[in-house]
Amino acid sequence: MSSYVLPARVPSVAVAGEAARFPVRRIYCVGFNYAEHNREMGRAEREPPIFFSKPADAVLADGADLPYPARTANFHYEAELVVAIGRGGAGIPAASARDHVYGYAVGNDYTRRDLQAAAKSAGRPWDTAKGLDHGAGIGAIHAAARIGHPTRAALWLTVNGVERQRGDIADMIWDVPGIIAELSTFFELQPGDLIYTGTPAGVGPVRPGDVVVAGIDGLGTLTHRIVAVPGGQSSEGSSR
Ligand code: MN
User: Fold this and answer.
1) pLDDT at 235
2) Quick one: three-class SS letters along 19-52?
3) Domain ranges in the chain?
4) Which residue from 84, 106, 210, 230 puts its CA 20 to 30 A from 30's CA?
């Protein structure tokens, strides 16, 4: 194929215990999927969750540095369970949704919270708040063929060793089969799709120099160091 620019590399995620990687097609995310988090965000507890998306090349592997992004002074972590889709489908029934799951990983849905709040109040899209470069932290994917389909597991996050989030994936408003059933009525899912399933309570800011560790029992941990970018903004929004 001749083309005017080089085609972009296909983003991919490590698979635990395997040399082969998991290529990423799309990243879907669920918002407002834990009642306690809905409360802290000023929403009704049982308000139905929503979907948004991130660019596939925003994936950020375990151990990578995360440049503190420009255009925010309130940059947040969100520890989440990530579902990796191995078999596609549209209108997937919840009863057979697990057959479409390749595996599970720890994720971190990094967010420019100030831009998200402004977008919400103005009724505008969330792309600049959620679709930032490197904003989709994800650890190694654990194949369901090896570990099964977890329905109850502690989900937690620390900043500089201090615990900031602790929940359980059993507390999701939409469980994984419910998410797949609902999402697949909007989009035909394909192998390579990732689904971030929402975060429990305790979201908060990080600053350059912070070390953020997210974990889910049985799925390992996901560590990132937030680094200042020369000429970029610090968490106070000043240039240095
Ligand atoms: Mn989230």
Assistant:
1) 46
2) CCEEECCCEEEEECCEHHHHHHCCCCCCCCCEEE
3) 12-227
4) 210
Cα 143 to ligand 1 centroid, rounded to whole Å: 22
Q: How many helices (H) and strands (E) does the chain have?
A: 5, 18
Amino acid at 167: G
Radius of gyration of the chain (CA): 17
- CA-based end-to-end distance of the chain: 44
Residues of the chain with pLDDT under 50: 235-240
Could you report the per-residue pLDDT of 119-149, keeping only the tens digit for each?
999 999 999 999 999 999 999 999 999 999 9
Give the separation between CA 181 and CA 178, rounded to whole angstroms: 5
Residue 103 in tokens: 């595996």
CA of 111 to the centre of ligand 1 (A): 8
Sheet holding 204-205, edge to edge: 111-112, 75-77, 204-205
pTM surpassing 0.90?
yes
Separation between Cα atoms, residue 39 and residue 69, nearest integer Å: 27
- Best CA proximity match to 116, nearest among 82, 158, 73: 73
Q: How far, in Å, from the CA of 130 to the mean position of ligand 1?
A: 9
Q: What is the pLDDT of residue 148?
A: 98
